[in-house]
Amino acid sequence: MDPVTSVATPIGHRALIITLAVPLTGWTVHALTLHRRLAAERRDPLTRAQRRAAFEHRAQRLLARHRHDSLLCMVDLDNFKGLNDTHGHAAGDKALAATGERLARWAGPHGVVGRLGGDEFAVATRVETRAGNDAMERRLLGLMGALHEPVLTEAGPLPLAASVGAAVPDYLGIHALSALLRGADVSMYRTKHSGRYGWAEIEDLDAPTVNGRRTGRPGTTLLERAA
């Protein structure tokens, strides 16, 4: 055997592997960067909640997959404009960020949280109904408690309150996200500022809307004029 060949062949193989590995590594880094960039675009940077389109996609999939043990909630902070006007936008941002974090913690790893705009959030998650008929109520009471915890700011603890409307697909017999969001929205405003959560009923699913928003919601007057 030619000693030159016996030495050169392994070296040649290593050189070939390195040559092939360099572009593969480059593509891997590029793909990872692209994935992170897309993931960042799907999330609201302040609250870390999903933006509307990403939330709707994931929430609809969750509701369709878990028809008998899922729950959808609409969440709206109380007196958020007054909070901003009184304490400043930095405090308002802290309140929004804390709300997103609390919703994510409540929803768990298999739930999904979305920021629909301003101080309006939505969350879809699973509920262990085998624990008893009051499992939904216990979860919602836990959510209300978390959302009413003060937010720590540089000026001290800031009181926070939120209104919640819940839609239970199994109870309503419907799993279409748009209808469930409408029902949860109506039930939320029915108990607005009461310190309690609302349950969506069948008739709430047919509440009139303007461009997808319940009639009477902030901004719907302008939308009606624009239409």
Describe the structure.
The structure is a single chain. The protein has 227 residues and is of the alpha+beta class. The chain has eight helices and nine strands. The chain has helices spanning 3-42, 52-65, 80-87, 89-107, 135-147, 169-172, 177-190, 220-226, and strands at residues 70-77, 112-117, 120-126, 151-153, 156-158, 162-167, 197-199, 209-210, 213-214. Strands 2-3-1-6-7 form a five-stranded mixed β-sheet, sandwiched between helices. Strands 4-5 form a two-stranded antiparallel sheet. It has a two-stranded antiparallel ribbon with strand order 8-9. Strand 4 and strand 5 form a beta hairpin. Helix 3 crosses helix 4 and helix 4 packs antiparallel against helix 5 (135-147). The longest helix is centred in the N-terminal third of the chain and has 40 residues, at 3-42. The chain is globular, with a radius of gyration of 25 Å. The N and C termini lie far apart (86 Å). Mean pLDDT is 82; it is low at 3-8, 29-39 and 219-227.
